[in-house]
Amino acid sequence: MQDEYRTVARAGVHETEVNRSRFLCALAPAATEREAQDFVAAVRKEHADATHNCWAYVIGADASVQKASDDGEPGGTAGVPMLQMLLRRDMRYVVAVVTRYFGGVKLGAGGLIRAYGGAVGEALDAVGTLTRRRFRLATVTVDHQRAGKVQNDLRSAGREVRDVRYGEEVTIEIGLPDAGVDAFRAWLADATSGTARLELGGEAYGDA
Fold first, then answer.
1. Phi/psi at 15 (nearest 5 deg)?
2. What is the rounded CA–CA span in Å between residue 132 and residue 130?
3. Residue 102, SS3?
4. R_g of the chain computed on alpha carbons
5. Coil, helix or strand for 2?
6. How far is Cα 96 from Cα 92, in angstroms, rounded to an integer?
7. Over the stretch 129-143, which tens digit does the pLDDT of each residue have?
8. Are 185 and 121 in contact (CB under 8 A)?
9. Does this model's pTM top 0.70?
């Protein structure tokens, strides 16, 4: 698994104009290929009167799924430069659709490549990106007497407390960087006089 990846902070649209053609780049995070395809379909429906709705998406922290479409523009002048811009900026789990309203001036192949790639780059700057880092899910089980202090200590140390469940004992779910597991185990034993239990779970990604 990748240690980290970048994605868009939110869905958003940014418009640029090149030689009287309007280029509207819609960006959105997409956890799956299906989500990306649904977003493309929604934008195409919204801009059904546009000259072209070209798109590209990258799914997977390792960019395992990469697809693009020129939607009627000359081959390789729209979808591919859009995809290349996403990859150049290390974007993952993201979908981009550039809607073009033709302004009457032909741009030529080079102009199209610059316009479509540039629209994505400008939109990424406008919408904003964030980094998500890989971490290990872990569960701390502790008695009620010590639970409050453990939670406070975790939060003050900047640990992400994901969930807290109260039963006979208190179960606290957290995220840990892989490299920090041993140090955390030692800290927990010290903080709870060895009474807390730590169980490691799977891996996930969270905001850095």
1. -110, 135
2. 7
3. coil
4. 23
5. coil
6. 11
7. 998 887 888 899 999
8. no
9. yes
